[in-house]
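Ticket 4471: requesting a sanity check on a complex prediction with pyridoxal-5'-phosphate. Repro inputs:
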Amino acid sequence: MTQDFKANELRSYWMPFTANRAFQARPRMIEGAEGIHYITDDGRRVIDSTSGLYCVNAGHCDPHIVDAIRQAAGVLDYGPAFQFAHQGAFELASRLAMLAPDGLDHVFFANSGSEAVDTAMKLALAYHKARGEGSRTRFIGRERGYHGVGFGGMAVGGIPGNRKAFGQQLPGADHLRTTYDRTRQAFSIGEPEWGAELADELERIITLHDASNIAAIVVEPVAGSTGCLPPPKGYLERLCAIAAKYGVLVIFDEVITGFGRLGHAFAAERYGVTPDLICFAKGLTNGAVPMSGVLAGCGIYETMMQGPQFLPEFYHGYTYSAHPLATAAALATLDVYRDKDLFARTAGMEAEFCETMMTLKDAPLVADIRPIGLICGIDLETGAQGIGARGYEAMQRAFHEQDLYVRVAADTMIVAPPLISEIGDVAEIVSRIRAVLRTLR
Ligand SMILES: Cc1ncc(COP(=O)(O)O)c(C=O)c1O
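Returned structure tokens:
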């Protein structure tokens, strides 16, 4: 059998969330990484201004994390996740419980943000059922939310493009409106002053469906993937209070906001609220090995610990839950966060980061800028070719002409540099973005 690898070289790999044909016409290849840089196939050092996909919080190829993974691979390559365990999994769960808000003491491991969200949703259903409230099956998400690509996460997610090809999805999902309103908050730094009252819509939706039918509300504290949408001041507090009043669980999807992005281990701490479940992923292992999980409160855990001793209490799990390599990567990553004090460092840098990002206000085509923590959305005016064309061009030009990797969502550029970045690095990112914006049509 002959195989024409050359002809098929770029077509065999069907790339995720990628314009495959455009990529094949002009590939963007990354072959190495170090600190805040990527190294391209032609040897260029490109600034990674979005921490990969918001995961490389400690910077690339940190030696402590690399060594931990190398070492783990030679000791226990894989162990069965069901009915057996290894010491590292317990250590990691305990350390995460210590970082989490008080009361969130139990950790269920998965491998991706999508799996974490689906796990949390299944936990919510199982918990209500175990308490004799099995009619609580509906979920409430929010417009412009992103919760991954599983059927659960997609259903509560609020991105039309991610939903339109997939029919019914999970029945019974409803959505709060987005908190973003440019007419009221353009160019605000951090949490906008306006909009806490939008949380009251939760009460309307709960009343509409009746609380006895609602399992949980799923929200990102700061919506990340659709362009960094910080919550209005007081909004999350109000949302949590309404949910609690009706026995509706609150699931915080902290896949992006976890591990320092907002200056705390989890954003829940920034807002002084304790959700019932927190989903995390990405920054957990610094992106080095896939791993995610869900933090659950004691009430949920204890309620689920029922039935015969020889049967699983929760019929759910993944072959690679608490994988030894991922566990080693996560433990080492937590060491680095602690030793470099990266969460507090981010909190200390936030004001300067926000000011630096705001200097783009007078750059061509900028319609809004939303910085918070160490993440910032920069909306560009949509061009004549339609939504997404200008953002795509900006990403391409940044990579090929300015040695800058920046994530775009439609016409929004999202800057979220590794937490080890210096303010000078942020200024450099801004200057390269400005150079890109000058060239856009
Ligand atoms: C808030 C949030 N939830 C879930 C996910 C899905 O994570 P994954 O791509 O690891 O499945 C993402 C990914 O960006 C995310 O930002």
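Notes from triage: The pocket of pyridoxal-5'-phosphate is lined by residues 53, 112-114, 117, 146-148, 220, 224-225, 253, 255-256, 281 (CB under 6 Å). Leaving this open until the requester confirms.
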